[in-house]
Amino acid sequence: MSRRSRALPLTRAETIWVSSATVLTAMTLMFSLTGLDLSTLFFERVRAADVHDPLPDLCTALPGGILPGTPAPHPQFDRRTVDRNEVGCTFETARAGSRPGLMVILRAHRPDPDTYGGQNDGARRQFHERYDSTGGPYTPLPGLGTEAKIKTSSDESSRNAEVVIRDGLLLVEVIYQTTDFPDGDPRTDLATVRATAQRLAAELLKVLPAK
Predict the structure, then answer these.
(1) Which helix (H) or strand (E) element contains residue 152?
(2) How far is Cα 33 from Cα 36, in angstroms, rounded to an integer?
(3) Angle at Cα 151 formed by Cα 111 and Cα 93, nearest 5°?
(4) pTM for this one?
(5) Disulfide engineering: 185 pairs with which of 23, 30, 68, 181, CB 3.0-4.6 Å?
(6) CA distance readout (Å), 85 to 58, 121, 171, 178, 204
(7) Spatial contact of 102 and 73, defined as CB atoms under 8 Å apart
(8) Nearest alpha-carbon partner for 39 in 48, 51, 30, 28
(9) Using CA atoms, how far apart are residues 72 and 66, in angstroms rounded to an integer?
(10) Could you give the CA distance from residue 58 to residue 68 in angstroms, rounded to a whole number?
């Protein structure tokens, strides 16, 4: 009496492996017949996000002595572990009551290419969406990056200047504010505040990676 041999049933892991291999083989064949690169399907987004160097820590990026006085740095946000394209830092001097104070805010980021169909177009569109307005507070500022604008303001106790820049793929923002300095102090002069903000923006562009 003969006994026919019977194949053992596949385990769950083996079944999944065989199914995956079959699908991958079929996809590879399809892409080879159509002339498409299979890696493009899976890795295009990764390449788009990672082709640029990570932005630096803005709390330590500027050379010593560039910032007026000795303001203490405070990371504003730093998402470089999950997003290498967005960084920021705030520098402040200690204040007590009406004691004079200084605040500097530095920000830099590259727009998400998936949102705007490309980083370069995204940077340009975001810059103009945020800072374009007929007769608005931002005025053109030549000589910084691809294009730049500046806004200044003042009241009884403070002087403020904000420089915004598009440098290729990068959007950069520098805010410089002085508060409660006595009359006659150079830091109460709005022209001085404006010039200092421009100088800080120029120095920040020097330490940011290639655009």
Answers:
(1) strand 147-154
(2) 8
(3) 90
(4) 0.70
(5) 181
(6) 12, 15, 10, 29, 16
(7) no
(8) 28
(9) 13
(10) 16
Alpha carbon of residue 127 to chain centroid: 13
- C-alpha–C-alpha distance, residues 211 and 198, integer Å: 20
- Identify whether the C-beta of residue 177 lies closer than 8 Å to the C-beta of residue 152: no
CA distances from 192 to 151, 187, 199 (A): 14, 7, 10
* Phi/psi at 103 (5° precision): -135, 135
β-pairing, 86-92 with 147-154? unpaired
Bridge partners for 173 per DSSP? 107, 164
- How many angstroms separate the CA atoms of 27 and 22, rounded? 9
Query: And the tokens for 133?
Result: 């307005």
Which token pair is 154? 């003042």
Structure tokens at 69: 């006085």
Two structure tokens written together for 31 = 């892409």
One digit per residue, pLDDT tens: the chain, 211 residues? 444 445 556 565 555 554 655 655 655 555 455 554 444 443 344 444 446 778 888 988 888 888 877 788 888 765 555 556 788 999 988 666 656 688 999 999 887 766 655 556 778 888 888 888 655 689 999 999 999 999 999 888 889 999 999 998 889 999 999 888 877 787 788 999 999 999 999 999 999 986 6
